[in-house]
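Incident log, structure service

09:12 report received: a user says their structure output differs between two submissions of the same chain.
09:20 pulled the input from the user's history:
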Amino acid sequence: MQSRKLVYYLAITKIRNLEVIMSFQNIKAEMVREGVTYGDAAKLLGMSQNNFGLKVNERIAMTVDEVKKIQSAFFPTASLDYLCQSDGDKPSETERDLAGVSRFEESMKELGLFDGRAEAMAVAVRAKLGATQPDAQV
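09:34 re-ran on a clean worker, output below:
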């Protein structure tokens, strides 16, 4: 039983330690160009600087209204499309996390440890990430 717990721990740790994908690159670039700090944006949005950092790095969701406030206050000539442009063909952090869940399932199956508990963990993680079906590998 201890080895099974260790495998679960290692698999979940692997999912959590995925490479951080930079997000909202254009917002960040414009902030640097215009001298806007995370603190400035956070104050505008009524949140902590740390919380804004989590949002601009796609750790937690940024709302359309928040992006519109940032645009209006700091970058009125920039389009929303430009400010929210993705990083090209790089998967989002959520897509990478979902791929990590799929790798977890595959690893557990290869080890013969994919049981009801492992399946329930994978389903719960997918639900927390907002997906219900297994995702394609990224």
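09:41 both user submissions now match this output. Likely a transient worker issue. Closing.
09:42 reviewer note: Helices lie at 2-16, 25-34, 38-45, 49-56, 64-74, 80-83, 93-110, 116-129. Residues 54 and 60 are 6 Å apart (CA to CA).
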